[in-house]
Amino acid sequence: MSERRPEYDVAVIGAGPIGLYAAYYSGFRGLKTGLFDGLPQVGGQVATMYPDKLIHDVAGFPSIKGIDFVRNLSEQSKRHAHDLHLSDAVVGLETLSGAAYRLTTERGKTYVAKAIIVAAGLGKCTPRTLPALETVHSPNVMHFAPDLSVLNNQNVIVAGGGDSAVDWAVAASRIAKSVTIIHRRGRFRAHEASVQEMYQCGVRVIAPGEVTSYCAAGGKESLEVNVSSAGAEEIAFDKLIVALGFHSDLSVVESWGLGVDGFRIPVAANMETNLARVFAVGDVSEYPGKVRLIAVGFGEAAIAVNHAAAAISPRLSVMPAHSTNEEK
Questions:
Q1: In whole angstroms, what is the distance from residue 20 CA to residue 84 CA?
Q2: Percentage of the chain surpassing pLDDT 90?
Q3: Within 10 Å of residue 163's Cβ, how many Cβ atoms?
Q4: The domain containing residue 292 runs over which residues?
Q5: Which residues neighbour 311 within 8 Å (Cβ) at sequence distance 6 or greater?
Q6: Secondary structure of residue 194 in the 3-state scheme
């Protein structure tokens, strides 16, 4: 029995910002493209968790809201036709004869592609929490705020010390009644400029400080915090954002034979994995000197698509024409 002919030249797995750009660039190179994601909308974590947060480190935008950023990427990706498959994650990848791969989705659908670009971000993510909050189920305790308006005129606590925690504190400071950030260490791991802005915008900083317990009584919620300089203190809140990052789960991808190491897929300089014509880009990829920024991921997507194009067709060069030559 002969194998099915490929539906796609390139299948992009993951429709976050990097996957969207990969789909656009694949179409730009004249490749028939399919874009797959288990979420019901494009944009990945940016669209799901941080739509109202401002992004400052993408070239060409002094600042842009996450949702607007995703909207622009989606519009750009549609410049060249591609098939979009949402709410149906890719769970299987098999090598076929004739230089092709079969993808199987969680709904049992199958597709064949000549090349694969994995832009799966951190895989399936589960938010981390604090020991004191493990049994807490309150609508006022959240890991992100898809709509910043829920913080309007509220007393907000942010727990965490990374970029997300500091960004949430800064964003909340513009609309909340009060903002307190609690970090168990004295030094924040966030970008220096963001930390400086946080200190300048009226956020109360408790660092080092440790959340020891949660209390709900009389319709009020509070945290007991061990403040190193002053002992225990009870801090009431209306909204609590626990921004401690996420546990990454790439167990599905591990079964594909891509040599997953921890939570990353090792790649060569051309973004190719240990399987021919299977590439990995964005947060999921790993190589010496890797820097995990959206701006870097865009470059990785272009590298992967260009090398995929040359591998698929001898008539296509790794070096593309300039986009300024593209018809409007």
A1: 10
A2: 73
A3: 16
A4: 8-125+246-325
A5: 115, 276, 277
A6: helix
Give the distance from CA 144 to its chain's centroid: 13
Dump pLDDT digits (tens) for 26-71. Answer: 999 999 999 999 888 899 888 877 787 888 889 999 999 999 999 9
Pull the structure tokens for residue 57.
Answer: 């480190």
What is the distance between the alpha carbons of residues 260 and 5, in angstroms, rounded to a whole number? 29
Mean pLDDT on 144-163: 92
* DSSP 8-state secondary structure symbol assigned to residue 285: E
Q: Please report, for residues 119, 170, 304, 320, the alpha-carbon distance to residue 270 in angstroms, rounded to integers and kept in the order given.
A: 15, 38, 6, 15
Q: Among residues 183, 215, 242, which one ends one of the domains? A: 242
Query: What per-residue confidence (pLDDT) applies to 1?
Result: 43
CB 116 within 8 A of CB 6: no
CB 77 within 8 Å of CB 25 = no
Distance of CA 2 to the CA centre of its chain: 39
Give yes or no: residues 62 and 192 share one domain: no
Residue 288: pLDDT over 70:
yes
Distance from C-alpha of 253 to C-alpha of 49, rounded to nearest angstrom: 23
